[in-house]
UniProtKB/TrEMBL annotation:
<dbReference type="Pfam" id="PF12728">
    <property type="entry name" value="HTH_17"/>
</dbReference>
<feature type="region of interest" description="Disordered">
    <location>
        <begin position="365"/>
        <end position="395"/>
    </location>
</feature>
<dbReference type="InterPro" id="IPR009061">
    <property type="entry name" value="DNA-bd_dom_put_sf"/>
</dbReference>
<dbReference type="InterPro" id="IPR003018">
    <property type="entry name" value="GAF"/>
</dbReference>
<feature type="domain" description="GAF">
    <location>
        <begin position="218"/>
        <end position="360"/>
    </location>
</feature>
<dbReference type="Pfam" id="PF01590">
    <property type="entry name" value="GAF"/>
</dbReference>
<dbReference type="GO" id="GO:0003677">
    <property type="term" value="F:DNA binding"/>
</dbReference>
<keyword id="KW-0238">DNA-binding</keyword>
<dbReference type="InterPro" id="IPR029016">
    <property type="entry name" value="GAF-like_dom_sf"/>
</dbReference>
<dbReference type="InterPro" id="IPR010093">
    <property type="entry name" value="SinI_DNA-bd"/>
</dbReference>
<dbReference type="InterPro" id="IPR041657">
    <property type="entry name" value="HTH_17"/>
</dbReference>
<protein>
    <submittedName>
        <fullName>Excisionase family DNA-binding protein</fullName>
    </submittedName>
</protein>
Amino acid sequence: MGKTDKDILTTAETARILGVSVRTAQLLIEGGSVPSWKTPGGHRRVYRADVMGLIERPVPGAPGAPLSSATVIIVALPERLSHYDRLFAGIPECTVEAFDNVHRALFAIGSVRPHAIIVDLEPPDAERERLLHSLSANPSLGHSRILAVAAAGKIASGDLPGRVVPVETAEQAAAAIRVSLIDAGTPTPPPAETMFPIALNESQRLVALERSGLLDTLPEEAFDRLTWLAARTLDAPIALLTLLTPTRQWFKSRIGLDTPETPRSWAFCNHTILQKGVFSVEDLPSDPRFANNPAVAGDKGFRFYAGAPVHDNEGFAVGSLCIIDRRPRKLDDGERRALMALAALASDEVRLRSMERQLRDALRKAERQAPGRGHTLPVEFAGPARKTHDAFPTR
């Protein structure tokens, strides 16, 4: 039986079915998460079956749905993990942790709140099947999506726990995860007319940024040390640790730049937080995305940019560590590795702040529950250092 007009959807109709904005639906379609084709007039069309096939359950941020992390945990044989690495390299909205050992995977799952868990059953394996049953029965993972990858006919659907979503290929699993990352809640992401790209889970990313507690705080030596190292190691006159709000690019630490913030529309880091690795532009004026940027076309005269994402403890990209130069240049492999290493250290500092806040909150809760037994907060957990050492000048 052939397809009818009712089986074919426009971008706007796709958006209504998914419960997202037209812009988000457009990003999904153009990114390949929903198969599509162009009409003679240049408009995108999709099949309703492809859209419905990717809908598993309400997306994060929907009313009543908990805010889950951006972490995806994958359990598969070693020879299959490289394939997943390639697939998820194109999904910047999540951080992937991959394991070929079930026990190590269980430890990781217990220490984070993963957005999703993918268990690859190619070839069928009794230990990984038992893992699926264990995960499905764990009430603390009620917010996590659990997917089982098995070729058609290899595993009977009745053999899988009710919570587990069966898919036949790794590609289908990746597509399902991408759809599940779509925003549907508050706070409101940047307006659709913005000229910079945004993540599919931008609202959750903004919640994570607010939760970090770093916005508009005083300089801290730990972060200033990293920007100083980035500038010195990579021979750059400007190094920044940026945080991206809906409207601003605010600098938690800065070397070689007097401005404490810029409009977000100026931020090259809008592209960086959508990367798994280093995002660099060797000659900004020759790139049509940035040629008219005020930081490029104006008095600042920026010519080169390279940055790496900085993640919080739940896997959200809250900002980036970057370097800027006033001359065109190119990073070699060693410099790229150095920038990634420094960004990883910055991520560790962000996670440390989160752990300190959680401990302070736990101590305050304990004090409230035990009147008359108040504690004095230990000095080492009274908050992160607020001083800026003279060896790492930023202003």
